[in-house]
Amino acid sequence: MKRFDLNLDLTNVIVILGAGVLLPVLLSTAAGIVAISLAEDTAGIVTGILVICFTVTAAGCGMLALVFAGRKARLARQQADFIANISHELRTPLSAITLYAQTLQSGKLKDDHEKTAECITTILREASWLDAIIDRVLTWRASSKDMLDLNMKSEPVAGAVQGAVERFRSMVPPDEITLSSSIHSELKVKHDAKAINSVVLNLLINAYKYTDGHREIEANVSDSSGCVTIEVKDNGIGLTALQAKSIFLPFHRAENPERGGTTGVGLGLSIARHLVNRHQGTISVDSRHSGGSSFKIVLPAAGDDS
Ligand code: ADP
């Protein structure tokens, strides 16, 4: 089934409106003015009405042109921001990989097996961050072009969530987080395990990125009547009520001084919402400024027949 969630194409709406409504009205009004001006008697009144009609329609066209130009400028700005942000986001793990690889190459650690192992672990950890960033961009591209095929199976989501927790654990230095999970779910949910895994991983990555100091992160899954709830909770910088309203929009990042130099492009949560919607579920956030955040995904349990 075709779905447009991330990329509601306003341009198409404007083109249809312009070509199908405004242009014909404009042309027929112009033709009317000319025709009636040639006949003499009622010409005054009708010409007046038609001139008003013509002026209003011309103003409509002008506004349409302005909307077009504004949208084009916004898209160009978004594109430039995206390229700058993604480059910055990719460069962070890449720099760490280069640094640790150079250290290994220099041979300085050749007799220190413990430090050598630490270097290799860090390189693998940073490569995992790179992989997650690239995966996010590719998923966004596929979903915005409506080319994301989901492999839906009816089974408990516990496996997908557990997989995300384990992957996340391997991506962060253990001394920087206390990661706990309570995954008790037996209800079957019709879902694509890879998609749910990537949504939960993204929430865990955000919980890490948007928390200063020692992070306390929880991943919980529980069953309730007819649905399964996945929760990712942190003790981080949180969000104001106003910020929380916009974070699921594509390319949106909350302006938060506590965020510091945290890298990102503002796509993770919009992809998460898109994927959760494709599962007929909902995603929401409960957060307070400086008081941590709790992201909740609610998915409907599969019926007996599936
Ligand atoms: P990115 O992290 O790449 O900016 P996301 O779409 O994942 O993009 O998140 C959008 C924005 O939502 C972030 O820029 C951040 O401002 C806010 N945000 C997301 N998760 C959290 C969180 N756990 N705590 C505080 N703010 C968050």
Structure, described:
This protein is an alpha+beta fold. Helices cover 57% and strands 15% of the residues. It is elongated and about 105 Å long. Mean pLDDT is 89; it is low at 1-8. Bound molecules: adenosine-5'-diphosphate. Adenosine-5'-diphosphate (ADP) is lined by residues 206-207, 210, 234, 236-239, 247, 253-254, 256, 259, 264-270, 293. Adenosine-5'-diphosphate (ADP) binds next to helix 5 and helix 7.
Percentage of residues in DSSP E strands: 15-25%
Question: Number of helical runs?
Answer: 7
How far from one another are the termini?
18 Å
User: What is the arithmetic mean of pLDDT?
Assistant: 89
Q: Helix content range of the residues, please?
A: 55-70%
What kind of sheet is the major sheet?
5 strands, mixed
Oligomer: single chain
Shape: elongated
Question: What distinguishing features does this structure have?
Answer:
7 strands, five-stranded mixed β-sheet, binds adenosine-5'-diphosphate, 7 helices, alpha+beta, elongated, two-stranded antiparallel ribbon, 306 residues, disordered N terminus
Summarize the structure.
The chain has 306 residues and is of the alpha+beta class.
